[in-house]
Amino acid sequence: MNERLTEEKSIYLQIGEMIETDILRGILLEEEQVPSTNELARLYTINPATAAKGVNILVDEGILYKRRGIGMFVAPGAREKILAKRRSAFAQGHIAPLLAEARSLGITKEELLKMIEETGETTL
């Protein structure tokens, strides 16, 4: 977790996303303890309540769980939950607008798939 906070979105959301990204990258594994809210607050020079808000969102989503008196840990299946959540957000944020624009331009499914294949060959 050595990313920088930006002003683009709320700090607590960024904290949650950084933890999620560390889980996706395999930096934090299932059943592994995550940094405490106090550690996060010190690391990013933020209020511990702000860090706690970001962590608690992940608890509510079942990505982290609390061990009373010990701390927060990565829940079993957390990586899969994060992938599902981010794939859904990708579809809503990118695919849906793409399809709407394709429809408005009269692009057929076949033409769109061809465009994606041709573009993907040079960029992926």
How does this structure look, described?
By secondary structure, this protein is mostly helical. Helix content is 63%, strand content 6%. It has helices spanning 11-24, 37-44, 48-60, 78-105, 109-123, and strands at 64-67, 71-74. It has a two-stranded antiparallel ribbon. A hairpin with a 3-residue loop joins β1 (64-67) and β2. α2 crosses α3 (48-60). The chain is elongated, with a radius of gyration of 19 Å.
Offer a few descriptive terms:
63% helix, 124 residues, mainly alpha
Oligomeric category: single chain
- Give the percentage of residues in beta strands: 5-15%
Estimated radius of gyration? 19 Å
Which strand order spans the largest sheet, edge to edge or round the barrel?
A: 1-2
Number of helices: 5
Average pLDDT, to the nearest integer? Answer: 93
The SSE string, one letter per element, is HHHEEHH
Instruction: Count every beta strand, where a strand is a DSSP E run of 2 or more residues.
Output: 2
Poorly predicted ranges (pLDDT <50, ≥5 residues)? Answer: none
The level of helicity is 55-70%
So what's the overall shape?
A: elongated
Q: Calculate the terminal CA-CA distance, rounded to whole Å.
A: 26 Å
Question: What class do helices, strands and sheet pairing give?
Answer: mainly alpha
Largest beta-sheet characterization: 2 strands, antiparallel
